[in-house]
Amino acid sequence: MNIPGGTPSLKLLWLNQDAGIQARRLDALLGCFDLSSSREELQAVENPFKALCCLLTYLFVQVDTLCLEDLHAFIAQALCLQGKPTVQLIDLQLDYIDARAVQLGSLLVRGLTTLVLVNSACGFPWRMSDFMPWNVFDGKLFHQKYLQSEKGCTVEALVEQNRSRLTKFHALKSVVCKACVRENRRIVSRQHWHSPQPGRWGRQGSGSHRTSSGYSRAGPGQHWRIQGPGNRQYEPDHWRRYSSSGWSN
């Protein structure tokens, strides 16, 4: 891992109480996701969105077929979830079920689970409560925002015409997009896709990156990462929308 000062031992991360150890712990966590260069921006993000931005940046760097509409849906649902009554979420009605939205929601929750494990292994540089799915994700609400984003709804509509949310939306989007650009990953709208490799250009560097075979620089061992229609081994037109009958289990 590319960590300032080298990779620390678990003994140092878990047992050391010296001044500055929290900074080493955070360096280790960000190093696990190759986000050391975005440290300052992520630290400036308010809770509980810090962990969400970390995860979204990692996912969008690793998965080429995630697009701008997906990012809008992820961020908008996290912002709209704050303070929304449970009964309102229960009564939420969807026009239809999109299989890709279900898969993306599952991917995010699995990613949060991985973040919990990494945060624990690094000695808890961030509060564990920031990683709890119920603070930043609701499946039905995400599905609604995904369908709206897919239809081309404006950002204002996605955040339900709330000015405070709109300001936070642009701030969070900026953090993720800037971090992705550092990794040569440009997040573009699905409408701009003209090749099976959207949003990436001439990426060079250490490690193996995601290719048409579906493997990423982190290797095939991280099983929570997206597989199937969201993977670049599928052409974009093939996964635009699936009916529920086309999916097993």
Automatic annotation (TrEMBL):
InterPro entries per the UniProt record, alphabetical? Coact_PPARg (IPR026784)
Q: Where is this region: Disordered?
A: 192-249
The leader peptide range reads none
Q: Where is the composition biased (Polar residues)?
A: 206-215
Which Gene Ontology terms describe the biological processes this protein takes part in? Answer: fat cell differentiation; peroxisome proliferator activated receptor signaling pathway
Q: What GO cellular component entries does it have?
A: nucleus
Instruction: Return the protein name.
Output: Family with sequence similarity 120 member B
